[in-house]
Amino acid sequence: MSLWNLAARYGALPGTIFAAGMGLAAAQPAPKPGGHLIYAQSSFPPCLDLAQSARAQNASRQILDNLTDQDKKSGEIRPWLAISWEFQDENKTLVLKIRDGVRFSNGEKLDAAAVKANFDAIMKLVKEGRAPQAAGYLSGFVEAKAVDPMTVSLSFELPKAGLLQSLAEKPLSMLAPETLAKSADERCAGQLIGSGPFIITEVVTNDRIVFRRNPDYNWASPNAEHQGPAYLEKLTFQTVPEGGVRTGIMISGQAGAVDDIPVQSYAQVRAAGIKLVARTAGGVGINLIPNFSRPVMADLAVRRAMQHAINRDEIVKALYSDLDTAATSPLSHTVPFYADMTPLMKYDPERAKQILDEGGWKPGADGVREKEGRKLRMQVIWSFPGFRPDMELIKAQLAQVGMDLVLSLRTDTEIGSVIRSGRYDLRMSDFTRPDPDVMLGLFSSKYNSTIKAPQPELDALLDKQSSAMDNAERAKLVREVQEMMVGQGYAIPIKESISVVGTAPNVHGLWMSTPRWPVFHDTYIAAE
């Protein structure tokens, strides 16, 4: 998309960001209702229904509310559409009181019947294999019941320590009964009605998603800076795939906010007065995940040596910015009960060589170690092209201790089938959910059918922490999980994931929710 296309398409509407000033104001001006903000997104979501796909978090979340929310600073669970709750039946049933007076944007009422209908619809998608993320949140789900018009109960086979947090996740947000009657494909295409601050008015696949303000909105998140309708009158998510073009339209004032600004452009956009709003993602950061069904990765010495052969600080310093952080655990530091595992994964190439020597991996004539006729050669797969420099640097680091990392970038279409086939040694992955249960979906063979060689000891410990309702007990168990994962090499942490959004100098009030998604309810455009 050329730089002039946005202006040609939308015109110079009052309040539209096309000619933002380049200087930063000394103080943030008072909120000003109105205006049209264009958000340049790097890709168009393959499905707009968050119950079916997490890829639409930035866009679809603007129309959605949840039963609970997670404090953006402390991580504490706070009431939202559910005003109170109580665990019953030995913590296997959660009873929630629903906020009165909430309506979906089509006028339908949010009540216990609507909440029950939402969970029934989600579980239908789960059974059809269309809702993998929700399936993890609702594992062991038995039923939802409308106890009375404004009270609903959710029953499970076992206690779920992370249940209240999962209710804050957008795959479990509330949709209008009219939407629930739509087919799964219709919902993916954007036929969605929520109770949130914006309403979808237009979807042009692979191009844009247009929203207008919900004028009746009056039940904002407890994280919000104000109650009542959003300030912006109109919001457009415009797809602009090229990073350099997104940077250009940000600097020229053709967009009020952009995502995925190339790291090498940070200095340029900052010099132009662009504000960078960043948040470390709560969840499993960027990790290399071994495939234990492959002979080389089944060797503990190889996995332990990798922990010490990778220089995470060098990766961040060479390829990232002052906003990024090297990993110190499989979990990011924003997840409750995170523990620093640095002693188990400290960069020490001499220690890595010693571990490999003791494990029987001897240096070969070509510099690649070998054992019993097998080369220490590993194939790593990933699907995001932007991570190639990371992989190339990790390859060079591992080569210093005699490991040969074979790089295999796959397309989004290919990688799922490759993972399911098990034809790889390592895969790069991350997963966002600011609760320790985020580890279930990646590392437990009970919830991840792509794991070809189950690890019963890890599965059992993950299950144990998931049902520990006492915080002190859960903290102890989550620490044990992290120690096991790093010490036994179930995960090779690299860096923490981060989301960065650039905003024009006269755009204010945008903040990141937990775990890392932009929220536009409080966003406004200041007068020029």
UniProtKB/TrEMBL annotation:
<dbReference type="Pfam" id="PF00496">
    <property type="entry name" value="SBP_bac_5"/>
</dbReference>
<keyword id="KW-0813">Transport</keyword>
<dbReference type="InterPro" id="IPR039424">
    <property type="entry name" value="SBP_5"/>
</dbReference>
<keyword id="KW-0732">Signal</keyword>
<protein>
    <submittedName>
        <fullName>ABC transporter substrate-binding protein</fullName>
    </submittedName>
</protein>
<comment type="similarity">
    <text>Belongs to the bacterial solute-binding protein 5 family.</text>
</comment>
<feature type="signal peptide">
    <location>
        <begin position="1"/>
        <end position="19"/>
    </location>
</feature>
<dbReference type="InterPro" id="IPR000914">
    <property type="entry name" value="SBP_5_dom"/>
</dbReference>
<dbReference type="InterPro" id="IPR030678">
    <property type="entry name" value="Peptide/Ni-bd"/>
</dbReference>
<feature type="domain" description="Solute-binding protein family 5">
    <location>
        <begin position="76"/>
        <end position="448"/>
    </location>
</feature>
